[in-house]
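I am writing to request your help with a piece of structural work I have in hand. What I wish to show you is a protein chain and, alongside it, a tokenised description of its three-dimensional fold. Could you please explain, in whatever detail you think fit, how the structure tokens follow from the sequence? You will find the record immediately after this paragraph.
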Amino acid sequence: MTAVITARQLSKRFRQKTALDNVNFSVQQGRIVGLIGPNGAGKTTALKAILGLTPYEGELDVLGHNPFRDRSALMQDVSFIADVAILPRWIRVSEAIQYVEGVHPRFVRSKCERFLAATEVRPTMRVRELSKGMIAQLHLALVMAIDARLLILDEPTLGLDILYRRRFYEQLLNDFFDETRTILVTTHQVEEIEHILTDLLFIKSGTIALSTTMEDVAQRYCQVLVSNDRLEAARSMRPISERKLLGKTALLFDGVPQHQAREFGEVHQVGVADLFVAVMGGTA
């Protein structure tokens, strides 16, 4: 596979804090990668470095570019969605479309208008007249109409209700994503997007705590509901976390075969949220 993003010894230090501490990771083409971490872990700093918005130490290659030095060239192939509140409230929908068409050579106006035609967003409306969900639809239409190779999403559905969140990701998969495009997303709502992720990057205190694929998660980890009479025997297998659940104890194992885990109780697939809390040591 082709690497879209490669970071080697990536670091970013502020006066009183190290936001990124010699981070190494890569993102491959045609993948949907979840960059997951608690507040202050370094997610936003990493995204800013990838987008060329902040200087950094170490090596960072994004689509063959040094993002800070070659940001103008890089942004021909990159789209970015942050909190939808960044759109000016006074601007009309038609004016927003006209603006993006004027500044981005790879924007396809007809694709944007076709997407919006299936929504309640109308060209004459101003952003201040739109609900937050409608603003998200407008923002998504503007970004998906750009023929970009890399899409970066930073908490894109923050503040939206569950219907708009689900619709947002469905439209993203159906109308944008394919094997030539890559999506890097940060979100605290991991349960809602884990079914679309292909890869995970867990970040903790400026370092990568886990880099893996969803296929590897399914094979490597399992969670077992253990009754009290089998608890000590199960603990001898050295689970990486445990918690009380439905009168039993849920133990999360790393590298224990499922047929062996079944000797102790009911085996379940591990969700991203449970794995995240376990890897973070319960600090998330």
